[in-house]
Amino acid sequence: MATTKAQAPGVAPRRWGALFFIGLAQLMIILDGTVVNIALPSIQRDLAISDGDRQWIITAYTLAFGGLLLLGGRIADYTGRKRAFLIALVGFTAASALGGAATGFEMLLVARALQGGFGALLGPSALSLLTVMFTGPKERAKAFGIWGGIAAAGGTFGLLAGGALTDYLDWRWCLYVNIPIALVAVIGGYAILTESRREGRARFDVPGVLLVTGGLVAIVYATGRAESDGWDSATVVGLLAAGAVLLAAFALVESRVAEPLLPPRVIADRTRGAAYLAVGLAGGAMFAAFLFMTYYLQVAKGYSPIRTGVAFLPMTLAVLVSAGGLATRLLPRAAPRALIVPGMLLGAAGMLWMLTLDAGTSYAAGVLVAQLLFGLGAGLIMPVAIDYATHGVDQGDSGVASAGVNTAQQIGSSIGIALLNTIATGATADYLASHGGGPGTARQAVVEGFGTASAWAAGILFAGAVVVAVLMNTPRPRQQAGTEHGDKAGTGEPLLARP
């Protein structure tokens, strides 16, 4: 059986200091998923990007990230998690510099895809380092509470940073800002992190990479094309069918190859599978909410980029309260679905509140309420789902399990943004066609489009809550008496009461 060269569970030296630098890398990944959202109207004007293509500035990043994450997890497992972490940081920074210097839509698209590719190595190497360093239930709960808080609140912080950078400098600094963050993370990570890797000869599932990436690209591209071509067009239907066939072939290949990209044993567990689903749905809804609220505030309400960023602060506070004050305290004591399901229902309520908005709705009665509901929900979902998505796996699979979490989030974001942006754009066009032109009508058309898409997002989150409630049957954790960390002897796996 594969083993991992690592410190004994729960006693990795300087692990809390290491968490700071790993957290910086995670913050940078999350920032780049949202920091350009606030700047997107400015980027769209500067580079002459159409409404139908604007989502690709976000999707190019999340799709490359999600499509290559599983490969990144395997590379981290076999070549060394610390080494992969440092190399990915350097590559991510170089891609950010390229994007900041972009002179056209195509160059920016390539840079964003490269960011996603290096992020696909950075994300799982960072999370797998965390997984092998923190194994005792109490410390693990604290560490994953911090990690989940970064994952949930980092997106909102990115919106604030994006607003400030766009207003006071230029949208290009939304990409250049990665350089100093990465520099600190590289220096600190090199000095403090301990190397760990899976023993044995590295074998990579190249057919699996090609199949899963091709399938996901086909589905996301088809969803984006539906806005202009229609859902019943031959191109869209053909791409969706091709994507489904490629993903089905991927599942078949993974069950037969010696070293699968995503071992079936990792996702066969009902709790882990439900956790991946929760992360994916929450990620899609979260990024869609950022996009909708950004355009609502800047287009319908006339907010500046910095004012828009400040307007998102209540969501950040709600996430911090929920993730740090509630989820972290309840995680060692409560069954995971007792936190995730209410979180998804709160998120659905926040999306439904978007239906009450119009161009004249005040901030306090409109966006603020939606943000607080969605932020509280996201804070309950992310720390718990991320913890249980990597819970109980063999340390040799920690990289690919960690990649699975990030894959779910990024693919959920890619498909969610593409689908919901298509629905919003179509509803806006329908409203304009039936109500004529004029500045007031145009603003209300934007609101109508985002309201329609938000209703779809709420329905998806509600359906996801039902599925998670049925699938995630893991009961409340209990610690084993007589052990320092409540771990199984020699395994570092917290005991769970099983049915």
UniProtKB/TrEMBL annotation:
<feature type="transmembrane region" description="Helical">
    <location>
        <begin position="274"/>
        <end position="297"/>
    </location>
</feature>
<keyword id="KW-1133">Transmembrane helix</keyword>
<feature type="transmembrane region" description="Helical">
    <location>
        <begin position="55"/>
        <end position="72"/>
    </location>
</feature>
<feature type="transmembrane region" description="Helical">
    <location>
        <begin position="84"/>
        <end position="105"/>
    </location>
</feature>
<keyword id="KW-0472">Membrane</keyword>
<feature type="region of interest" description="Disordered">
    <location>
        <begin position="477"/>
        <end position="499"/>
    </location>
</feature>
<feature type="transmembrane region" description="Helical">
    <location>
        <begin position="411"/>
        <end position="433"/>
    </location>
</feature>
<feature type="domain" description="Major facilitator superfamily (MFS) profile">
    <location>
        <begin position="18"/>
        <end position="476"/>
    </location>
</feature>
<dbReference type="Pfam" id="PF07690">
    <property type="entry name" value="MFS_1"/>
</dbReference>
<feature type="transmembrane region" description="Helical">
    <location>
        <begin position="309"/>
        <end position="331"/>
    </location>
</feature>
<feature type="transmembrane region" description="Helical">
    <location>
        <begin position="20"/>
        <end position="43"/>
    </location>
</feature>
<keyword id="KW-0812">Transmembrane</keyword>
<feature type="transmembrane region" description="Helical">
    <location>
        <begin position="234"/>
        <end position="253"/>
    </location>
</feature>
<dbReference type="InterPro" id="IPR036259">
    <property type="entry name" value="MFS_trans_sf"/>
</dbReference>
<keyword id="KW-1003">Cell membrane</keyword>
<feature type="transmembrane region" description="Helical">
    <location>
        <begin position="117"/>
        <end position="136"/>
    </location>
</feature>
<keyword id="KW-0813">Transport</keyword>
<feature type="transmembrane region" description="Helical">
    <location>
        <begin position="175"/>
        <end position="192"/>
    </location>
</feature>
<feature type="transmembrane region" description="Helical">
    <location>
        <begin position="453"/>
        <end position="472"/>
    </location>
</feature>
<feature type="transmembrane region" description="Helical">
    <location>
        <begin position="338"/>
        <end position="357"/>
    </location>
</feature>
<dbReference type="InterPro" id="IPR011701">
    <property type="entry name" value="MFS"/>
</dbReference>
<feature type="transmembrane region" description="Helical">
    <location>
        <begin position="363"/>
        <end position="390"/>
    </location>
</feature>
<feature type="transmembrane region" description="Helical">
    <location>
        <begin position="143"/>
        <end position="163"/>
    </location>
</feature>
<feature type="transmembrane region" description="Helical">
    <location>
        <begin position="204"/>
        <end position="222"/>
    </location>
</feature>
<protein>
    <submittedName>
        <fullName>MFS transporter</fullName>
    </submittedName>
</protein>
<dbReference type="InterPro" id="IPR020846">
    <property type="entry name" value="MFS_dom"/>
</dbReference>
